[in-house]
Design brief:
The chain has 191 residues and is mainly alpha-helical. Helix 1 packs across helix 2.
Length: 191
């Protein structure tokens, strides 16, 4: 039985040859989990739908540049979060001017200033370096830990759902995820 990562890799290879059905399969596979993930940043269902649509358009255009250094799920989620952050920063710059806010809106001013700073070259470089470190650390994890971690943190599955998919006890899933988090935290600690 193939792992989800192996299935994704095969679908990506087919999509890179122009197989639209393979790309549609990837879209159907990752739209629900991407939607759940984006709900952490966006409250409006229409905004989430727009970001998902734009994410898959960007992914379709860039699919030939996907090298497989990281899992497809990591790549598509990175495109999704970058698209959401760009949209939030753009909305704040266009729709809300700091001068329009009074002194009672200091928290909002700080939020808008922070969002406007999301696109600085230094922050983009730092984010790129952090993602590269995270990808490298994820790839070094044992397969069971990596899969458990991705199913929990990226797919949003419960421990019980992961245990069912991986055919192991819930305690084993918890242990794998805990060890994966410790390993990733240690890899990213100095950064």
């Amino acid at each position: 039985m193939k792992s989800r990562t192996e299935e994704d890799r095969e679908l990506v290879e087919l999509a890179q040859t122009g197989d639209a059905h393979a790309f549609e399969t990837l879209m159907r596979r990752y739209t629900p989990s991407l939607s759940r993930y984006l709900r952490r940043f966006l409250q409006d269902a229409a905004d989430i739908e727009d970001v998902i649509q734009e994410t898959f358009i960007k992914a379709y255009i860039a699919i030939n540049h996907f090298r497989g250094d990281a899992a497809f799920s990591t790549w598509i989620f990175r495109i999704g979060i970058n698209t959401a952050k760009h949209g939030l920063a753009l909305r704040h710059r266009q729709g809300l001017r700091l001068g329009d806010l009074g002194d009672e809106d200091l928290d909002t001013k700080e939020l808008v200033e922070t969002e406007a700073d999301l696109e600085t070259p230094e922050l983009r470089l730092q984010t790129k370096e952090s993602l590269a470190l995270l990808d490298a650390a994820l790839e070094k994890l044992p397969e069971e830990q990596r899969m458990s971690f991705e199913l929990r943190e990226i797919e949003g599955l419960s421990y019980e759902e992961i245990a069912g998919q991986m055919h192991c006890p819930v305690g084993t899933v918890r242990s794998r995820i805990h060890r994966a988090r410790d390993t990733l935290a240690a890899a990213l600690k100095g950064h």
